[in-house]
Amino acid sequence: MPPVVDLRSTSGTRTRRHRRTGRRHGGVDKGEPTRQVEFEAMLLSRHGHLFGSRGRSADRHLERSAYTLLSRIQLDGPMSIGELHEAFGLDTSTLNRQTAAMMRAGLADRIPDPEGGIARKFRITERGEKRLNDDRARCLSVLEGLLDDWDPEEVVRFASSLQRLNRSIESLDGRPWPRP
Question: Rounded to whole angstroms, what are the CA distances from 89 to 43, 58, 72, 174, 178?
Answer without folding.
Answer: 24, 26, 13, 10, 15
